[in-house]
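Ticket #4471: structure output looks truncated?

Reporter: J.K.
Steps to reproduce: submitted the chain below (354 residues) through the standard prediction queue, then opened the result file.
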Amino acid sequence: MVKILYRCLDSQELLPMQVTFKIIRQTQTNSPRVQTYTLDVEEGNTILDCLNRIKWEQDGSLAFRKNCRNTICGSCGMRINGRSALACKENIGSELAKLPHPNQSKIPEITIAPLGNMPVIKDLVVDMRSFWDNLEAVDPYVSTSARAIPEREFLQTPEERSRLDQMGNCIMCGACYSECNAREVNPEFVGPHALAKANRLVIDSRDTATENRLEEYNKGTQGVWGCTRCLMCNAVCPMEVAPMDQIGKIKQEILDRKDAQTSRSIRHRKILIELVKKGGWIDERQFGIQVVGNSFRDIKGLISLGPLGLRMLARGKFPLGFDRSQGTAQVRSLIESVQKLTSDTSKEEIQSKP
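Returned output as attached by the reporter:
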């Protein structure tokens, strides 16, 4: 871990103090263990600088990935004090500032661990095969038919190209995948990195496979409906790609093409919005009947609600009536405005496709 810098009153120079690094170390055959290293550091030192010093000066057996040292390659992804980040981007000063109520008499500590949702090979090096396999699963390339133009370049307008900028900033560091709660509980979910890349292809004016792509991304919980909207991917992305936002855009493209009878996932989204528009919040009685029971079309779904309904009745938690919230008209107006804006944007992107 690290000790906070202090200013010498006579020389006005910043003098380094100590920090202790608690590094989670393991191999494929051994359980994780914590090993500590203490360094004299400066506020501007990056976590990667410190790991390099530990390896060069104290323990050459420490394993971690690195390459560019400039937030470009994404190689040095790891968990720093419990969150996934790039070791070359985070520095001692910023990490110490995040520590709650630092004890000035104790050397501060920074914990370094491998990325999550991937098996550890050694120390901070993880096996990223599932990460790359799931990226491949969304077919992250411009469609073959769109590339088959032998006599001229496939030009885009500045506006068409600018729509791809945010997703194009992804450096495949694995931070979002590491923190994805949906991926942790559902091994079939392809992950936020893959779906952020998928949205790049959905809105790419050169691609001609949009409809096929949306059908694939709409399948079960391996695609967009597997996202639990926990916001962790957005929170840790070092390049502000906002993967959850991109997943939401794909969902909207699917919703614009499907009706509520297509699947429970689509029914869930559409009915939730309609109930909020109608009452300002959700009428839970109607929500269960319309989504799970498909408005009495799905008998098995209705029966599955029975045990929950009985428990709620027994505990006095079943809502017998429903009162609209205050400001329902304003809520409805806001939702309709957003829906119109989203629809107009989608139409512009569809018209830009060849």
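Triage note (M.O.): checked the attachment and the full token line is present. The mean pLDDT is 89.
Status: closed, working as intended.
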